[in-house]
Amino acid sequence: MIRVLLAEDQAMVRGALAALLGMESDIEIVGAAADGDTAWNELRRLTPDILVTDIEMPGASGLELARRVQHHGLPVRVVIVTTFARAGFLRRALDSGVAGYLLKDAPAEQLADALRQVHRGGRAIDPQLALEAWTESDPLSEREREVLRLAGEGMSSGDIAARMNLSQGTVRNYLSECIGKLGVGNRIEAYRLARQKGWL
């Protein structure tokens, strides 16, 4: 039996996934969480075989959960099921140790087959996204990404500096690097482009 924990903030999607996977004779839904922090607590309590998670949720994101699983050496395999059909997200997911990356509009039987494949130790990646993921690389460093994300959320350079324990000059340098690398005119355009590419 493949024991699965679901992490999805949209109740209807969470219910649909539970119902679809629950019809499979070899898959058992052991728990469901509506946010990343609850999912993390449930992961450690239930020790499922597989975590099926969205990327963006309140609290910890799906990528953050995958990184925690990797960091703590938990015997849980992570499968992302998302609407984000962007190569940048897939690359970051793979870097976080994710074993599966599927789109929500994929056929239901594809998800069950993917979970079986991942449970056997394999990987299940949307083939079109896999192809795109290696044609365009993410130019941003982790620090640049963090600064740009906060700037895109409306924080000033001073606020970002205080949050990240950096000088304002260093924050401005990071933002200038982002703008230059992405070939745009300002921090807002840089944020939008990086979001569109899946790099944030």
Report on the structure:
It is a single chain. With 200 residues, the protein is α/β, with parallel strands linked by helices. The chain folds into 2 domains: 2-133, Response regulator (Rossmann fold), CATH 3.40.50; 142-197, Winged helix-like DNA-binding domain superfamily/Winged helix DNA-binding domain (Arc Repressor Mutant, subunit A, Orthogonal Bundle), CATH 1.10.10. 54% of the residues lie in helices and 14% in strands. The chain has helices spanning 11-22, 36-46, 62-72, 87-95, 108-119, 127-133, 142-152, 157-164, 168-182, 187-197, and strands at residues 2-7, 27-33, 50-53, 77-82, 100-103, 124-125. Strands 2-1-3-4-5-6 form a 6-stranded parallel sheet, sandwiched between helices. Helix 9 packs across helix 10 (187-197). The longest helix has 15 residues, at 168-182. The model has no long low-confidence stretch (mean pLDDT 90). This is Response regulator transcription factor.
List keywords for this structure.
alpha/beta, 6-stranded parallel β-sheet, Arc Repressor Mutant, subunit A, 54% helix
